[in-house]
Amino acid sequence: QGQLVESGGGLVQAGGSLRLSCAASGRTFSSAAMGWFRQAPGKEREFVAAIRWTNGNTYYADSVKGRFIISRDNAKNTVYLQMNKLKPEDTALYYCAAASGYIGSVYATKDPYNYWGQGTQVTVSS
């Protein structure tokens, strides 16, 4: 079994920054990619960013491109999401996800991800 544990959420003013962390253990070690998703109240869970473990290629939703940065530390089996210039519309529960055994090339949907964390709340005040 794999496990993902997120941390780093909190309350921040608009324009501020937060860094989320996702520690992976178990079978998630062999994941093709790690991703961050978010879900605001009453809305669908949406893709935020993803990174491939092997070559480090990154993918971003248009809404966060230029503000968020996803990175990984292979030695610590940890993925980070640096969030800058935060906006009130970034307020959501943020989930870390792992795509284990996936051999496709599309990472911006929920389909490839078969391990999910419990989520960490990010609230941006105006």
Characterization of the model:
This protein is mostly beta strands and 126 residues long. It contains no helices and 11 strands. Strands 2, 4, 5, 6, 9, 10 and 11 form a 7-stranded mixed sheet that branches. Strands 1-3-8-7 form a 4-stranded antiparallel sheet, with no helix packed on it. A hairpin with a 4-residue loop joins strand 7 and strand 8. It is globular. The protein starts with a strand and ends with a strand.
Q: What characteristic shape results from the CA principal axes?
A: globular
Give the number of helices. Answer: 0
How far apart are the first and last residues' alpha carbons, in Å?
A: 40 Å
> What is the average of the pLDDT values?
93
- Return the string of H and E elements: EEEEEEEEEEE
Residue fraction in strands: over 45%
The gyration radius over C-alpha positions equals 13 Å
The SS-based structural class is: mainly beta
Taking pLDDT < 50 over at least 5 consecutive residues as the criterion, the unreliable ranges are none
**What does the largest sheet look like?**
7 strands, mixed
Index terms:
mainly beta, 126 residues
Quick take:
The protein contains no helices and 11 strands. The protein has 126 residues and is mostly beta strands.
